[in-house]
Design a protein that fits this description.
Shape: elongated
Strand content: 5-15%
Oligomer: single chain
Radius of gyration: 22 Å
Distance between the termini: 55 Å
Length: about 100
């Protein structure tokens, strides 16, 4: 939801990205968690899906691409629902 974790600190009221030497242990753990979560998502994918999300910078972006790929956009979902409702309403018993 929040994108990749980027450790920052304030310098004269401006947020500046911390260098590796300035990071605390909690910052390092949070950065590692982001990498682990991205690895979990990519390890569950086949080759075609992996290439779709390999250029994403955050796990949220990866998830959104996979969601649209497999479920479709909201318009597609709505169209499928209406088609199924119409098919149900036209459902009749065949003679014999």
């Amino acid at each position: 939801m929040n994108g990749p974790y980027v450790p920052v600190h304030d310098v004269n009221g401006v947020s500046v990205v911390k260098s590796f030497d300035e990071m605390f242990e909690t910052d390092n753990k949070q950065v590692q968690y982001d990498c682990i979560e991205k690895n979990i998502i990519t390890s569950a994918l086949n080759l075609d899906e992996f290439f779709r999300v390999s250029q994403c910078s955050s796990k949220k972006e990866m998830w959104d691409i996979l969601e649209v790929t497999h479920e479709g956009t909201n318009d597609v979902k709505r169209a499928r629902k209406h088609a199924l409702i119409q098919e149900y309403e036209l459902f009749r018993m065949q003679p014999g």
